[in-house]
Amino acid sequence: xxxxxxxxxxxxxxxxxxxxxxxxxxxxxxxxxxxxxxxxxxxxxxxxxxxxxxxxxxxxxxxxxxxxxxxxxxxxxxxxxxxxxxxxxxxxxxxxxxxxxxxxxxxxxxxxxxxxxxxxxxxxxxxxxxxxxxxxxxxxxxxxxxxxxxxxxxxx
Length: 156
Hints:
Blueprint: H1 5-21, E1 25-27, E2 34-40, E3 45-52, E4 59-67, E5 72-74, E6 77-79, E7 93-95, E8 107-108, H2 113-119, H3 126-136, H4 138-146, E9 153-155
Helix pairs in contact: 1-3
């Protein structure tokens, strides 16, 4: 069974500094299952999280949304802005490695079968996964700015 530690370390080294430079704050209170990031923009709270596979396989997805700056009402309870996660925002979206509804579409260590055959490598290096996330993160920024859904974004 593969461990998530190398991917987590690569994300901390590559992806976290990238989003922190964009004004996001990291909230690790829900680790190891979730890491939440929040940014207070002029008109909304931009929020996303990294959701890890519940069976501790080396795969994850990024859930994201926007919320009012003063907090949200969720299931009859008021959620303060510093506690908001994408699930509290009603509708949220997902940034994925590729389109699909199952966890196969999530960012993960294992390459798709065709890529395994072509590259003769079963797994991505953790740094490659982190680079994929950084590369596709612009689709979140586009959605927050224009509400345009990119090719690696899924709606729920």
